[in-house]
Design brief:
The structure holds 2 protein chains of 2 kinds.
Chain A (H helix, E strand, L loop, with lengths): L3 E3 L2 E11 L2 E3 H9 L6 H13 L3 E3 L7 H15 L7 E7 L10 H9 L6 E5 L5 H16 L2 E9 L17 E10 L6 E4 L10 E2 L17 E2 L5 E2 L5 E2 L1 H22 L9 E4 L4 H10 L11 H4 L6 H16 L2 E9 L3 E9 L3 E8 L2
Parallel strand pairs in A: 2-17, 5-6, 5-7, 14-15
Antiparallel strand pairs in A: 1-9, 2-8, 3-4, 7-8, 9-16, 10-13, 11-12, 15-16
Helix pairs in contact in A: 1-2, 3-4, 6-7
Chain B lengths: L3 H12 L21 H15 L5 H5 L4 H8 L2
Helix pairs in contact in B: 1-2
Classes of the chains: A alpha/beta, B mainly alpha.
Chain lengths: 361, 75
């Protein structure tokens, strides 16, 4: 196991924004599966929603973008902490749903926020584990530049997630977040590890947005699949069983090994901060790690799986008070498309933490 | 010899019922209050992780009772 260690950092603030449009997920799923109230099938759909734990989701109304959501999150955060633009040396924007392929979101954000001319700008495309990578990259930049880094993380999954896909449609939501990483000589050592299995590319992907498949009108047509799902060429696809076994078996092993190599146990951590993928799966992961579920904050019941934005959204939604008042040590882990995993041992708080903000378009 | 009671305890945890409410005769897709595909994924993982028995989704679909699953790990 390769472990990256960085000292001298502090999270100085965090904020999150969700779209105002809310989906009642049980109602949605019953329509999706076309079930009759009271039937055996209907009970099965109720059980599924109960297992994934997603009662409600927030999705864009068709206009907001990842840039819009995180711009709002960044403005609120900069204002509530009285941060000064000239103290920043970089913007890292984690997203797999950028406004455009070029220029990247981070560079336009420098202009929109009025950040200094000498701002390093980078977008990071890493599916669900993106936030862990973002913290690592922003941490390396902050240490090297001795300047604050604005880490933005936003996803608009609803734009490439077919509402007729029986696997992915009941899962995903949209959100935008902002985090400030700053150099701080008293900060404890942060540790990261990043296992990858690129052979599993086909089990979770958003195809057809790059140039393996050239842009064409056919990409906009819905295609029917044997399970009754319909997707366009560019809609996300997930092999649920393959992802499930990866997370509960491989990610579990990676996390156990990480804790062992750092000579830690669940007792050393205040919180287990997991990617909000689905409740049944991450509870099974927590159980395998011997973490009590009381140490695992969950917000997916309100917001769904917001891919890379789910961890910062979860912190703001469930830990706002704790983060504002005291220091907590987190064991963080996110996993997804690649297949890629990011695991971190780091601390947060006391620092600026907003409540979850509703985006008014 | 695999411990039957321990197996039923693990299955009860996945199925969200008390171990006393199920037996090897339990038809897990029909006889419990809540059944869905995620629980099936969970069972497949338990068979592999805790009993070293890797089964495919197709093989899993051929199993109807907990006894069908148990006989696969107890051979």
């Amino acid at each position: 196991m390769v472990i990256s260690r960085i000292s001298g950092l502090k999270i100085e603030g965090i904020s999150a924004v969700v779209p105002s449009k809310e989906i009642d997920n049980l109602r949605f799923a019953k329509d999706l599966f076309g079930v009759e109230e009271g039937s055996q099938q209907s009970r099965s759909v109720e059980s599924l929603i109960r297992s994934i734990g997603i009662e409600k989701r927030r999705i864009c109304n068709g206009n907001e973008t990842s840039l819009d959501l995180s711009l709002r999150a960044a403005k609120e955060l900069l204002k509530s902490g009285n941060f000064r633009n000239e103290d920043f040396g970089g913007i890292v924007f984690v997203t797999q749903s950028p406004d455009d392929l070029c220029p990247n979101n981070a560079s336009y954000m420098q202009y929109l926020l009025g950040f200094p001319e000498f701002t390093a700008v980078i977008d990071v495309n890493l599916a669900c584990p993106g936030y862990v990578y973002g913290l690592w990259i922003a941490g390396l930049m902050a240490g090297n530049l001795q300047k604050k880094i604005l880490l933005l993380d936003a996803e608009t999954n609803s734009y490439f997630n077919s509402p007729y896909d029986k696997t992915t449609a009941p899962l995903f939501g949209d959100a935008g977040t902002a985090t400030i990483i700053a150099p701080n000589s008293e900060g404890p050592e942060w540790r990261f590890t990043f296992p990858t299995d690129g052979s599993k590319r086909d089990v979770l992907l958003v195809p057809g947005f790059g140039f393996r498949e050239k842009p064409s009108p056919e990409k906009l047509e819905y295609i029917s699949y044997p399970d009754g799902s319909r997707r366009r060429r560019f809609d996300s696809f997930m092999d649920g069983q393959a992802v499930f076994s990866y997370v509960t078996q491989r990610v579990s092993k990676y996390m156990k090994q990480f804790m062992k190599e750092l000579d830690t146990t669940p007792a050393n951590f205040d919180y287990l901060m997991l990617h909000q993928a689905n409740a049944f799966m991450i509870k099974m992961l927590a159980t395998s790690l011997k973490f009590p579920t009381s140490k695992m904050p969950l917000s997916l019941q309100k917001y769904g799986n917001t891919s890379s934005a789910s961890i910062p959204l979860n912190i703001v939604s469930e830990m706002s008070k704790v983060v504002s008042q005291k220091n907590s040590r987190l064991l963080m882990s996110a996993f997804g498309g690649g297949l890629v995993t990011g695991i971190a041992d780091l601390d947060i708080g006391p620092c600026v933490c907003t409540e979850v903000i509703e985006f008014d378009s | 010899m695999t411990d039957k009671n321990e197996f039923l305890e693990k299955m009860a945890m996945i199925l969200e019922v008390e171990p006393t409410e199920i037996s090897l005769e339990t038809s897990f897709r029909n006889d419990v209050p809540y059944w869905d595909s995620l629980k099936g994924f969970g069972m497949i993982v338990i068979l592999e992780e805790d009993y070293g028995k890797k089964i495919t989704v197709e093989e899993f679909l051929e199993c109807h009772t907990l006894g069908d699953l148990f006989s696969r790990i107890d051979s």
